[in-house]
């Protein structure tokens, strides 16, 4: 009986291995990990395949959006960039097709209260449309206030569209958003789980955080919707994050990105037709004249290339003075790690800041497994005394990136992400200044950190790092 049971799983797994080899584009090391798991642990491998290895839903063709924005966006000026900055811009333009937008007003948020205060003001003042895409929307006081406000605006006749990730909002049903829907708004889950009865499907999540108000104001960064982002959860306090509010031409790309994700899940054909027939309503001309060059780069399992990761690598390759990284999870692949080491060995000051508080134990142990390697390369590692959710990369205090992308395999290869690449020194200095402030609440790691690790921690680090490729 048991022998037959395993034989069935082995047969199924052989079919899955064939699919992986011939139909999936994968890193060879990751492919080998899956093959070994499916061959030697058939039942476990089969279940993990269902949970973690799913072909993403294909997107609808939205060429009309690209053609429309290409025709409308003509505001450019001659502007002299340094050779290194120009090379990063060119890379993003050529490799992933990201346009350079020149004119923006901006606000930078390092904490949830300031972000939510401004966001709620913008929503209250909206007159045409409010579009939101979030990985997490909590059913706490912050989430309830947002839903109540959106329902109010929908009742006033403002077009409200909200997409939330089904795994990030695990346990949150559409009933929580009923007031928006009843008021005429549209709410959809992104990527419902494979195993609907138990709600499990861990990969290909929409990790983006995008808000566009009246086609004019855009938000992106690391903050979702919940009280923890305001340091109101004692388990994750103080909470540090990074988020941007933009007014200017790049909001077009955020709107474009929202619609691509929205059309992926929208079930209302009339709403799709309405959007396509009224594009001028959603892509409004910007009158901002402040020069602040920005590119918006998106990435996900629907793209064959690692656009954001390789843009990070390109940025680091241009560094001559400093590289500063803040990330809640540091699980780089070999290319990212070696690029960082080469910079450090070339005399570039490299600083990596991670949290002391863990929100996922196995992820944190995988992160700490890299500390010894970083120290060996003379890279400064700081432990922020709280939960650090900020996702930033600053190069030479000249250019930076802010967005939803963590330094880990999930963000680089599996999830849907979006980042702003910023070539403005004033905004970059603001981001770097916050890094300096955060250093005041950090511990600098030295060799004693490694020596004081217990054998249990060392074992956990080795095991979790081995399986991190498929988790």
UniProtKB/TrEMBL annotation:
Coiled-coil residues: none
Database matches in NCBIfam families: bac_cardiolipin
PROSITE patterns: PLD
Topological type in the membrane: Multi-pass membrane protein
Keyword Transmembrane helix included in the entry's annotation: yes
UniProt-recorded name of the protein: Cardiolipin synthase
Organism: Turicibacter bilis
SUPFAM superfamilies for the chain: Phospholipase D/nuclease
Name of the gene encoding the protein in the UniProt record: cls
């Amino acid at each position: 009986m048991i022998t037959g049971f395993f034989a069935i799983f082995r047969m199924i797994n052989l079919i899955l291995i064939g699919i992986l080899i011939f139909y999936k584009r994968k890193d060879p090391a990751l492919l080998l990990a899956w093959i070994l798991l499916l061959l030697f642990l058939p039942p476990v491998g089969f279940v993990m395949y269902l949970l973690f290895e799913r072909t993403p839903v294909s997107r609808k063709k939205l060429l009309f959006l690209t053609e429309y924005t290409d025709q409308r966006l003509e505001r450019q000026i001659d502007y002299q960039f340094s050779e290194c900055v120009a090379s990063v811009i060119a890379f993003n333009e050529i490799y992933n097709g990201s346009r350079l937008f020149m004119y923006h007003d901006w606000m930078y948020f390092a904490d949830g209260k300031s972000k939510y205060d401004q966001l709620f003001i913008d929503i209250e003042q909206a007159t045409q449309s409010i579009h939101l895409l979030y990985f997490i929307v909590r059913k706490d006081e912050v989430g309830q206030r947002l839903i109540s406000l959106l329902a109010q605006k929908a009742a006033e006749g403002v077009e409200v569209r909200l997409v939330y990730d089904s795994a990030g909002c695990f346990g949150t049903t559409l009933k929580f958003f009923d007031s928006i829907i009843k008021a005429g708004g549209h709410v959809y889950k992104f990527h419902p789980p494979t195993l609907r009865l138990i709600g499990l499907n861990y990969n290909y999540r929409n990790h983006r955080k995008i808000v566009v108000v009246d086609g004019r104001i855009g938000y992106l960064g690391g903050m979702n919707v919940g009280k923890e982002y305001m340091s109101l959860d004692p388990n994750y306090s103080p909470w540090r994050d990074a988020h941007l509010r933009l007014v200017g031409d790049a909001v077009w790309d955020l709107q474009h990105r929202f619609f691509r994700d929205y059309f992926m899940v929208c079930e209302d054909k009339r709403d799709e037709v309405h959007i396509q027939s009224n594009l001028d309503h959603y892509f409004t001309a910007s009158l901002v004249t402040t020069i602040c060059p920005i590119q918006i780069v998106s990435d996900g399992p629907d793209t064959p290339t690692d656009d954001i990761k390789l843009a990070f690598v390109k940025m680091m390759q241009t560094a001559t003075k400093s590289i500063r990284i803040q990330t809640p999870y540091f699980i780089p692949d070999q290319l990212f790690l070696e690029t960082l080491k080469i910079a450090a060995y070339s005399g570039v000051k490299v600083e990596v800041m991670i949290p002391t508080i863990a929100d996922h134990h196995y992820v944190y142990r995988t992160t700490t497994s890299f500390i010894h390697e970083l120290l060996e390369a003379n890279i400064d590692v700081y432990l922020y005394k709280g939960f650090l959710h900020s996702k930033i990369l600053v190069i030479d205090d000249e250019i930076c990136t802010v967005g939803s992308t963590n330094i880990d395999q999930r963000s680089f290869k599996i999830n849907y992400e979006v980042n702003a690449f910023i070539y403005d020194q004033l905004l970059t200095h603001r981001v770097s200044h916050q890094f300096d402030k955060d250093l005041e609440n950090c511990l600098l790691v030295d060799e004693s950190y490694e020596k004081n690790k217990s054998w249990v921690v060392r074992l956990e680090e080795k095991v979790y790092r081995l399986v991190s490729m498929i988790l």
